[in-house]
């Protein structure tokens, strides 16, 4: 194991999520009329922040490894809570938009594919993650 995050939530999508060491607390509140109340988060914002940071980190790593410029490299993300057509329950949809002004479209596609291959969050979205529920 390289790192382990341990958090607990009370109140679900309208509650509080804290690290077990008590150092970080997230007030979780659903968006109202499409807007998030200042100083609060929703699960989609937290997933989006984690996924875009990780993916951009992987992209930057592969660019540096190849001796390419990382100036101006950025990634935008869209996480949407949508209806799963299979069971009519909620699911997430993720769109990543990498930008690298010093790369050709072909190079950007290549390095984006490398980042996609190695980023733990894109692996998670592809179903390539260990997952378990433990009842103690």
Any idea of the CATH class of the largest domain?
Alpha Beta
Number of strands: 5
> Structural class of the secondary structure composition?
alpha+beta
H and E order? EEEHEEHH
Largest sheet: 3 strands, antiparallel
How far apart the termini lie comes to 22 Å
Share of helical residues:
25-40%
Strand portion? 15-25%
Total number of helical segments? 3
Kindly report the spatial arrangement of strands forming the biggest sheet.
1-2-3
Quick one: overall form?
globular
Q: Please indicate the count of domains.
A: 2
Please name the CATH topology of the largest domain: GMP Synthetase, Chain A, domain 3
Radius of gyration: 17 Å
CATH H-level homologous superfamily name of the largest domain: K homology (KH) domain
């Amino acid at each position: 194991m390289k790192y382990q995050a341990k958090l607990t939530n009370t109140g679900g999508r309208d509650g509080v999520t804290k690290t077990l060491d008590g150092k970080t607390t997230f007030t979780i509140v659903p968006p109202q009329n499409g807007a998030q109340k200042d100083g609060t988060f929703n699960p989609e914002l937290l997933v989006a922040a984690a996924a875009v940071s990780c993916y951009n980190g992987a992209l930057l790593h592969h660019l540096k490894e190849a001796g390419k410029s990382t100036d101006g490299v950025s990634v935008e993300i869209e996480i949407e809570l949508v209806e799963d057509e299979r069971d009519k329950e909620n699911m997430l949809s993720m769109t990543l938009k990498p930008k690298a002004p010093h790369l050709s479209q072909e190079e950007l596609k290549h390095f984006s594919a490398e980042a996609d291959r190695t980023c733990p969050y894109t692996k998670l979205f592809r179903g390539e993650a260990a997952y378990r529920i433990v009842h103690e």
